[in-house]
Specification:
Blueprint (H helix, E strand, L loop, with lengths): L1 E5 L5 E5 L11 E9 L2 H8 L9 E2 L4 E8 L11 E4 L38 E4 L2 H4 E3 L6 H5 L4 H11 L8 E5 L3 H10 L6 E5 L3 H10 L3 E3 L5 H9 L4 E6 L4 H10 E9 L11 H4 L5 E3 L8 H9 L9 E6 L3 H9 L1 H4 L3 E5 L4
Parallel strand pairs: 9-10, 9-12, 10-11, 12-13, 13-14, 15-16
Antiparallel strand pairs: 1-2, 1-4, 3-5, 3-7, 3-16, 5-6, 6-8
Helix pairs in contact: 4-5
Length: 348
């Protein structure tokens, strides 16, 4: 089969590799029918995630068809259409038993495209298939379901829920890429009074406005002045960091009010300064997190009921075999305007 291989920092190759096979009774092999590229994949290619070994197949999001299951798999069967979650869960360890699947001690957590071969391929082996896949109703398209593999539960859990967004809050989202836009979308479920989107790219701010941002702060604007004017100098109730660089984290810390919440969602590859000399007196709650995907069933229900349309994040579509072209488009988002790219298997 063909797969996108990480061959060290700055090197990726779409090449022929052996098909995956069942290696444990809890495994499933899934034919990849739709897959996407994540900003985390770009972090890996930059060398920001050294745990990824050269030779690993990239990707941790997919929708597909179950082709084979191990003897212990009971929740899905051959022929089922499933969402492959970005987080794998053994279902038995201390963390899994409290729905903290991202911290799984039994061989799960974020492993696809990280510690084992991932989803950017024609087929993928999914460990712990019973607790790491979701059967899809007919009413939910492959493209809509694919957005539930990572960006929607990540932004919802690590950004909106960790940030304790409440009705009437003023919420600032720094970074209007796919995660930031998903945070805007899911924050609206809690009816904040205003959502402020901060991003230097005009095309992303346009997308943020379309998805529900009330105030746009772009290149050349002063985020602190904009938030101060909106809040009477108090600061935002919640700031959500959705980029993953020191400057944006530190900006979120400056924009949040005393007693507020700063929710970091971005993947950081470099240290950020925590200015405790300023922050210690401000009663802030700062949270970090890896998504657990405990919210995926609820989000799936919202999509099936027509309450949430994740396809609005998709800007580019490719055939599965055009993986290299899709990477070029996604990697150059400033020029292409790419938010989420979807690669689909044709002829199925």
């Amino acid at each position: 089969m063909k797969a996108m291989i990480y061959n060290g920092p700055g090197r990726r190759d779409w090449e022929e590799v052996p098909d995956p096979r069942l290696t444990a009774p809890t495994d499933a092999v899934v034919r990849v029918d739709a897959v996407t590229i994540c900003g985390t994949d770009l972090h890996i290619l930059k060398g920001d995630v050294p745990a990824v070994a050269p030779g690993t197949i990239l990707g941790h999001e997919a929708v597909g068809t179950v082709m084979a299951t191990g003897d212990a798999v009971t929740a899905v069967k051959e022929g089922d259409r499933v969402l492959v979650s970005c987080i794998t869960a053994c279902g038995r360890c201390r963390y899994c038993r409290t729905s903290a699947y991202g911290q799984c001690l039994g061989g799960g957590g974020w492993i696809l495209g990280h510690r084992i071969d991932g989803t950017q391929a024609e087929y993928v082996r999914v460990p712990f298939a019973d607790t790491s896949t979701h059967q899809l109703p007919e009413a939910v398209s492959d493209e809509a379901a694919l957005m539930l593999a990572d960006i929607l539960p990540t932004s919802y859990e690590v950004g909106v829920l960790n940030g304790r967004v409440q009705p009437g809050d003023i919420v600032v989202v720094v970074g209007a890429g796919p995660i930031g836009l998903a945070a805007i979308t899911t924050a609206r479920l809690f009816t904040p009074s205003h959502i402020v989107a901060v991003d230097p790219a005009a095309t992303r701010l346009e997308a943020a406005k379309r998805l529900g941002a009330d105030v746009l702060v772009g290149a050349g604007d002063d985020p602190a002045a904009a938030v101060a004017e909106l809040t009477g100098g108090l600061g935002a109730d919640v700031t959500i960091e959705a980029v993953g660089i020191p400057e944006t984290f530190e900006l979120c810390a400056r924009l949040v009010r005393p007693g507020g919440h700063l929710a970091n969602v971005g993947v950081h590859g470099a240290p950020a300064t925590l200015h405790l000399e300023d922050l210690w007196i401000r009663n802030l709650t700062i949270t970090t997190g890896l998504v657990d995907t405990y919210s995926t069933p609820a989000l799936l229900e919202m999509v099936a009921a027509g309450r949430l349309d994740p396809t609005t994040f998709i800007t580019h579509r490719y055939d599965l075999m055009d993986m290299e072209a899709a990477y070029r488009t996604f990697s150059d988002a400033a020029q292409t305007g790419a938010l989420k790219v979807v690669l689909s298997r044709t002829g199925t």
